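Support request, please re-run this one:
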Amino acid sequence: MSILGSLSQLLEIVVALLLAPLLVGWVNQWRAWLQNRSAPGLLQPYRLLHKLFNKESVVAEHASPLFRAAPYIVFSCMVLASAIIPTLSTDLPLAPAADAIALVGLFALARVFISLAAMDIGTAFGTMGARREMLIGFLAEPALLMVLFSASLIPKSTSLATIVETLAHRDLAIYPSLAFAGVAFAMISLAENARVPVDNPATHLELTMIHEALILEYSGRHLALLEWAASLKLFAYSCLGLALFFPWGVAEAQAPLELVLALPVLVLKLAIGGVALAAMETASAKMRIFRVPEFLGTAFLLAVIGVLVHILLGA
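Re-run finished. Output below.
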């Protein structure tokens, strides 16, 4: 394990923790501007986290230890997911564990715990949100796996570090398989992060909310951890999309100069991606929950087509 590798791994975790709320604030700001509304401050997510961490956590009388432990487990899963995605460098001590299947497993583990915690109290909203969350996960996880498999066929490896290193440091080429996988990934990312058209993160309407129904019974530091985890999940998905489809700027092993330049490149790509996400949300309308299976089914089919195109055409 090299010193530079350990430094890049630590830097990735710190960058994820610091930039994740900023990315949410950036998206919210641009979404408000595009809708001709007064935009919240860019640092509003940090103020929210500070306020929640300084409030007392109110826990239901009959809550089990699972309810109390779920925020810490979900937050830890999102930090680990952000750590194993090569955002700044491919020289990471966690690279051997950065397998595509392991990454999907981390997202699934977090989903299971937050859903169980939502049902633990026994409220109608929590149970409703948990069932909807598991429905989305049941449809999104196979589609995400097919997207990752489509990208892994190029370097013949499911290691995220190997995939990124192969795509970033070879001659520029257009892969039709990655084009299909990219569209599928965008649809999956919208669903997994509770964004329009699947869910609206700015509403508490009981008939439409999914993510908000899961965390309705949390408060104080528990709610702060879940909000931070949600921003980390958006950051992880954004970095995963950039690593797979726009991998340029990620440093190679033993390249300190490239590591220094990787951070501003990452910030620039995230800024452009945040504007694109806000534009997609503004141009879309919230769909009915019964249309979500069709939406994610389409994403799965596109990802499968990407795999078949690579197998049949080698591109």
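The first helix runs from residue 3 to 34. The chain is about 70% helix and 0% strand.
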